[in-house]
Amino acid sequence: MSKLDPDCIFCKIITNDIPSYTVYEDDDVKAFLDISQGTPGHTLVIPKIHVANIFEYDEQLAATVFAKIPMIARAIQAANPAIKGMNIVNNNGEVAYQSVFHSHFHLVPRYTSKDDFGMFFKDNSANYTPEQLTEIQESINSHLGD
Ligand code: AMP
Ligand code: ZN
Fold first, then answer.
1. What residues are in contact with ligand 1 under a 6 Å CB criterion?
2. What percent of the chain is modeled with pLDDT above 70?
3. d(CA 63, CA 45)
4. Choice from 12, 35, 106 to test ligand 1 binding pocket (greatest atom count within 8 A of CB)
């Protein structure tokens, strides 16, 4: 099985067949500016192996990719004193707003609560009984390691 998919835009960024504004790379990961620049400095971190989404990671790949994220996040932050925080977002599946099906982590610098990034968690806690939450908990528990 090839590590890269010749039809994948991010695999082409890995091989430099498509140019990118790369801020970091090593044998395992590449980090480059997201062309949309949702906020200034918006960066994507990708594994240098074609995996579509988080469900395809094994522990070793996860450890390798996640291990690099704090260093890259600190470099982004250090590059601009106006950065006050950062959202790290990973979309998995079209329903979750994934549009490029090579797994990637968005590092989105935050400047003010009114900058161009938004995320909304609805509070549905009033709709759940303790029994319903326990049922969900136990169902997830039972599938660990599947
Ligand atoms: P997602 O919606 O989570 O799959 O995010 C895909 C991201 O890839 C979007 O934010 C796009 O702006 C970004 N993107 C697509 N093509 C390129 C490219 N050639 N260089 C940099 N970023 C890209
Ligand atoms: Zn790919």
1. 9, 18, 20, 34-36, 91, 97-100
2. 99
3. 13
4. 35
The pocket of ion ligand 2, defined by CB under 5 A, consists of 5, 8, 10-11, 50, 102
Q: What is the β-pairing status of strands 105-110 and 43-47? A: antiparallel
Say if domain 9-116 classifies as CATH 3.90.1150.10: no
pLDDT at 94 over 80: yes
Q: How many CB atoms lie within 10 A of CB 39?
A: 19
Q: How far apart are CA 71 and CA 91, in angstroms?
A: 21
Over residues 7-34, the pLDDT tens digits come to 999 999 999 999 999 999 999 999 999 9
First-to-final CA distance of the chain: 22
Q: What ranges do the domains of the chain cover?
A: 9-116
